[in-house]
Amino acid sequence: QSYLPVPPGVGMEENFLSLDDILLSQEKLPTRTECVFPRLGFVEKTSDTRDIPEGTKMEMPLWLAKGLYDNKRRLVSVEQPKIYRQGWRTVFSADPNVVDLHKMGPYYYGLGSQLLHFDSPENPEIAQTVLQTYIGRFRRIMDSSQNAYNEDTSALVERLDVLERSLFRTGQIGLNDFQRWEKG
Amino acid sequence: ANTETYLKSVALKHMPPNLQAVDLGKSVQK
Amino acid sequence: MFCEKAIELIRELQRASDGQLPAFNEDGIRQVLEEMKALYEQNQTDVNEAKSEGRSDLIPTIKFRHCCLLRNQRCIAAYLYDRLLRIRSLRWEYGSVLPTSIRFHMCAEELEWFNQYKKSLATYMRSLGGDEGLDVTQDMQPPKS
């Protein structure tokens, strides 16, 4: 397999030409406009003005929120998606393995890291929870990835987020390489 | 050079003036 | 919403994640370039109005459209670049003559890129291993013994 796509960036970084990072940055964030956006009125078909009024709450793709976000002149403010708020953080710290990160994500770690670009007093807790979740789920992912030889793994990866699925794939490649080496 | 020529001829030259350059250094992962 | 066509190009490649080369989506590229032209012209108009009539309230909208322009540019660049990575790997898997079915999926400029790549690789291989050169595309797997 000599086709190696441009890998996603690590942590808060994005790789400009990475398909994964482009899809990650398509994820929606709850935002609120902090000024009027004249002539862009497409949010409400009914409204007669062609402006997006200040205070409009809208789901905005991450790439647009990052592009508009400006510490000095605040055009939009970004709220945390539900899964990164206190309530869910408590669930994750209780037992991260119970959560279906595919359904809740599927870019739980990527989006969580990108959220740190937006100022919020909760950033340290978000970063900590994302990290602890990964650590808490790592062992089970690696165990299942190392013990699933020549069998259907769809059930094993069903509840994994995108990053965890690539970790699982890496484990599977290592396992298959080792089996082939053992057979000479 | 081959890749830059290709990107320019297929897409970049049809883009607005201030968007006709893509730094291929970005294709090198950190 | 802007940039929907652009992200569709990326999704199309992501669905072919096993390295297959989908048909070149010329129509998709053209639609994204048309959207960019429209966004740029609207921004030109607003920038002129903002300058000539002091309409600084238009700046957020200008910034919004510029974000969309950058997004479209990124998606097109990534779409084309990822296809080149797939085409490059085909040289190592099929050798220098590609099957017709695959060539049908490439646009003329990709075929040109592929020919240039082959020349660069051949030049490199001639520079290896003394006079007769070395074909590095052989023996990609270790021998059985």
Automatic annotation (TrEMBL), chain A:
It comes from the Eukaryota. The keyword Nucleus applies. GO terms for biological process: mitotic DNA replication initiation. It is found in: Nucleus. Keywords: DNA replication, Nucleus. One of its GO terms (cellular component) is GINS complex. Coiled coil: none annotated. Residues 90-182 form the GINS subunit domain. Residues 18-69 form the DNA replication complex GINS protein PSF3 N-terminal domain. Belongs to the GINS3/PSF3 family. Required for correct functioning of the GINS complex, a complex that plays an essential role in the initiation of DNA replication, and progression of DNA replication forks. GINS complex is a core component of CDC45-MCM-GINS (CMG) helicase, the molecular machine that unwinds template DNA during replication, and around which the replisome is built. Component of the GINS complex. This is DNA replication complex GINS protein PSF3. It comes from Acipenser ruthenus (Sterlet sturgeon). The lineage of its organism: Eukaryota, Metazoa, Chordata, Craniata, Vertebrata.
